[in-house]
Amino acid sequence: MGPLMVSDHPSCLKSRKSTKSWNKYIKGASAVFAYHISRGEKITVLSPPPPDRFHPDGLTNYQTIEEPVLKGAIGGVAVSRIEMVHPTVKGAEDFYYQVWPADETHLWIANFGMLLSKKQHWRRVSSKKRNLVVSQAEVFIQTETKVQNVSGTAKALKEKKEEKKKREKKAERKKKKAERKKQREEKRKKMTTTSDTSKTRKISDTENSPNNIKASDSPKCLRVPNSNKIDDGVEESSRPSMLARWMMYLWS
Fold this sequence. Notes:
Blueprint lengths: L18 H19 L4 E5 L14 H10 L10 E5 L11 E4 L4 H8 L17 H13 L10 H55 L34 H10 L1
Parallel strand pairs: 1-2
Antiparallel strand pairs: 2-3
Helix pairs in contact: 1-2, 1-4, 2-4
């Protein structure tokens, strides 16, 4: 947490919060911090040596918030390995051993034994706060997308959700586009059918127009026989033409 936990540091908010608000702030910060570091493959925890590595009540922020987050019980993302180191023991500053998912505490005991120091004076933690602490941690983890400085696994999850939304929007746009195309095709097909009907009607009207009626189809038309004879039996060629009549008149 760095300067955020130093009460006289300008970045620390302890002087501007009540005791209740400050406790809630610390719990939330622990949840966000644990979720932030859970993107790593390996986590190292500093603590007193065995047998009293943690508070016997099991209700500290690490035990109720940070460790469940690191193990994936809260938030659903777990680290690959949790290690312990006990720098207060001389010569053990660089000795790391795994405690999760496999518990290799026996390696520490084999090298340094069970160091029984003077009795630890642990602060008292009310068991009534356990469910509240876990619930608050879950709330902070669920709202991780609203926390700025969250990266790694949290960022990957956020990007995965955003990618899923993009795919859904893309599929929706594709579906709407297909529907619009189908509507255009139906409209074009309907217009083509209407046009064909109009052309058929126009052709029918043209065929029935007076200009296209044949002489043989009209009841009023009299078919003139193809003959050079007239009704009185006199051949047309035997009659003098009008010009011949005028010439005969002038000569007479």
